[in-house]
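HUMAN: Please help interpret these tokens:
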Amino acid sequence: MPVWLREHSWRQTLTAVYLSLPLRGARATPANIFCSEQYLKVSIPPFLFEAILYAPIDDTSSTAKIGNGNIFFTLYKKEPAMWDSLTLADAGKEKLQYLRENAVVKAQEKAKEETEAKKITKQEHKKYALEATMKLEEAERKRIKDLKEKERQKVAKELEFWKNQQKDADKYKSVQKKEELHQEIKPLKERTNEKMNKSRIPNEGTSKIRLKSTRGCHGSCSIFSQNLKEEQLPAPRAAATIKVNFTPRVFPTALRESRVAEEEEWLHKQAEARRRINSDLSGLEDLKEEEKNPDWLKDKGNKMFAMGNYLGAVNVYNLAVRLNNKLPLLYLNRAACHLKLRNLHKAIEDSSKALELLTPPVPDNENARVKAHVRRGTAFCQLELYTEGLQDYEAALKIDPKNKNIEKDAEKIRHLIQETMQSS
């Protein structure tokens, strides 16, 4: 025979009813509670509590909180009004039986509708994800095609510009050679004319010189041949090969297109990371190559968490943290595992470390900061440190003020703090 729980306390507002039910040492779980629009049942063998409520409630938004040896119900009324009592005064066995059966049937129908809705929503999400992926791939292909076209046009312009420069250089060289030849031939002609004019003057000195010069020559020797010997052009330059050496670079881009300071910083960080990994993995030489990648370990830990293997996920996240202790998502995911395993102090520690790494606060890390505050606040509340938990939930609301779930949880924590203060 069940033992009926008669002791309970309740209070109300225009929109909600707050019911407190003592457990008398029994351990309750959400599976022990059943609630519909006008029927409430708590079955914790050997204890039983049933109530036909005075008026219908919104069973979707109503909540139950188990803790401190009590069950705290927050029942939201469908219509704002003050109830005369918690239960109907004239509820007989037939009406109780009818409401009980009707509540079970409605709960089954609601569960079936929710299952169907989840199935449809899942299919829609898959379809949307596929369409979004196809759009992204199409956009990426178009972007690559546009980049190739731009690069082709750029190279074509540079080649045309180089050809024009070569033509201008060739023209300049030809003009320069002509000017040099003209400058070399002009003084030669002037000297030749001067000597010819001197040879025409009838005097004794010049005649003797002319006779001497003609006597000492053989064949076709003349003044022009002597001048050509004196003004002989230099020999052409010998051909040679110039070897050009380029400074070796880690990055494939040209130096004129690179940011040297950022590249040096990246190389320094990579070297530090390699030294840290080698020092941390001194005793883990048997690991595979992919097992030394923190991102691969994070994905593996997420899969284990999804399958319910929380302890295995914690071990994977531990190894990933050893490899790289600067990734906030590793601490954030490990905090979720600790919450599932009831390691509340470790969950608080990991959430705090994640918040420390998620600085400065920017729009890209808003979602991660909200999760960190909520998980730390949940751990505080489970440790019955409601004031600290409320501070974290309020911090999460400041980041994401439109999140209704966080707002409801914060309101529940406020009620718990008020009830704790009243009871004390």
Observations:
- The longest strand covers residues 57-67.
